[in-house]
Amino acid sequence: MTPMNVGERLARFVAGTNRVPAEALLQAKRAVLDTLGVALAGSREESARSVAGWLRDQGGRPEATVLRGSFRLPAADSALANGTAAHALDFDDVSLPMRGHPSAPLLPAVLALGEATGSSGRELLTAFVLGFEVEAKLGRAIGPSHYALGWHATSTLGTLGAAAGCARLLGLDAGRAQMALGIAASLASGLQQNFGSMTKPLHAGWAARSGVVAAQLAARGFSADARALEGDSGFLRAMSGGGEPDPAPFEALGEPFEIVSPGVGVKLYPCCYATHRAIDAVLELRAAYGVSPADVAEVRVEVNRDGLLPLRGAPPATGLEGKFSLEYCLAAALLDGRVGLAAFSDDAVLRPAARELMAKVMAVEGEEPAEFPIGGYADVSIVLRDGAEHGLRVDVPRGDPSRPLSWDELAAKFRECAGVALAAAGVEEALRLIEGLDDLDSVSRLTEALSG
C-alpha cells in the first residue's frame, strides 16, 4: 500500500470492522474508567468551569450530559465541555505511538454522541477502540517531527480519532467516514506554546467537539477532499513539516490493536508525563532511605535526549505551571511523600519550602535517545548535606503498559478523582456501571450517574 489511499484505508477500517477482540474492549473499559475519573475531578477546575458555563449560556438542544453539571447540551458542546475537563488536570492517559493523550479528546466525543444516539455500552467501547487505533497509527506515520514542530498531538491527532469514533457510532459507510476524516483534518489544531495555560485543556475539548462536528456533517453529505490526509498539501505532510509519512502503520490496522499493544499508559500523578519517571525515583529513594527534605543538598536528574522538551524552565507561578515543572514536581514529592491533586494548587506551588527545594534540583538531558520524546528514562541522585548520595534510574514508570495498574488500583484512582465531584454513593454507582459497560444497554444510564 502507498500513502495515496490512507484516508480510504482508515475509513474502510472504521466502517467495516465487524469484530473487536475481547482484550481490546477490556483495555477500552480501563481507559474509560480512568478518563471519567480525571474528567470528574477536572470539572472543578477554572478552565472546565469557564467552558461549561459559557456553553450553558449559549443553550441548545439537550442531547448529552455535562459531567457534574446536571444539565445537557448539544452533543458537540457536551464533548467540548467534558473534553476540557478530562485534560484540565493533566492526569489523563498517554499513548506512546500517538505521542499524546488519546482518551481526553476521544472519549468525550463518543460518550456525548453515544448518549445522543442511544448507543449501547459495547457500541461505545467499539467506537473508542477504532478511534484509538486511528490516533495511534497516524502518530506512527507522522513520527516525532510533528511534536518537535510544536504541535500538540493530543489535539491534532485526537481530532481525527474522535471523528473516526463518531463516524462509527453514526453508522457511516466508508465513503462518508472518509469525508468525516477529511473534514476533521482541517479542524485539527493545538500548539505546545499554550502548555501550562487554560488553553491546553481546551485543546482536548475542541478536538472532541470537532470530531463530533466532522462526523455529523459527513452524515449530512458534507464533503472534503478525498486526499485530505495523504495529498501533497494534506494532513500528513503538513503536520510533519513537509516530510514523507511512513505508510507502513496503515498496512496493519488492528494487527494488533494499538490499545492492546503497546497499550495505554495510565498516569499516577496529575502532571506532565515527562516528570513521572523522576517522581517515581524520588519517591522510592525517599521511602527506602528515610530522606528528610531538610537534609537534601542537591537533586541531580538526567533524562533522555529531548526529555525536557515538554517542560517549563522558569519557576512556576501557578498550579497549572507547576504541572510542567520538573523541579517543582520533585520538590513536592520530597515534601509530601506523594504527588496528588493537592500538590497543584497555586498555594502549594508557592510554598517557601517548595521554592527552596526547587532551587536544589538540577536537570540535564543525556545523549541517550528515546522513541517517545516525553520519557525514556530518569537517572536521579539525591545528595544529602552529610555527603551521602542515593541514586536510582527508572526506565519504566508505574502505570506504563508494561507495568499496568490492576483494576483495583484504577478503581482507587477513580474514587479519589470522582469523590471530589460526586457523593460516595454516586461514585460507587458509576464504578459499577463502568465495570459492566460492555453489557450496558444504554450509555445514558452511565451519563446520568456521572451528572451529579
Question: Which sequence of strands runs across the widest sheet?
Answer: 4-3-5-6
SS strand fraction: 5-15%
Structural class: alpha+beta
- The gross shape turns out to be globular
CATH class wording of the largest domain: Mainly Alpha
Helix-strand pattern, N to C?
A: HHHEEHHHHHHHHHEHHHHEEEHHH
**CATH H level of the largest domain: which superfamily?**
2-methylcitrate dehydratase PrpD
How many strand units?
6
Q: Work out the count of structural domains.
A: 2
CATH architecture of the largest domain: Orthogonal Bundle
Whole-Å distance between the termini?
Answer: 49 Å
The average pLDDT is 94
Write down the CATH topology of the largest domain.
2-methylcitrate dehydratase PrpD
Rg over CA atoms, rounded to whole Å, is 21 Å
pLDDT < 50 stretches: none
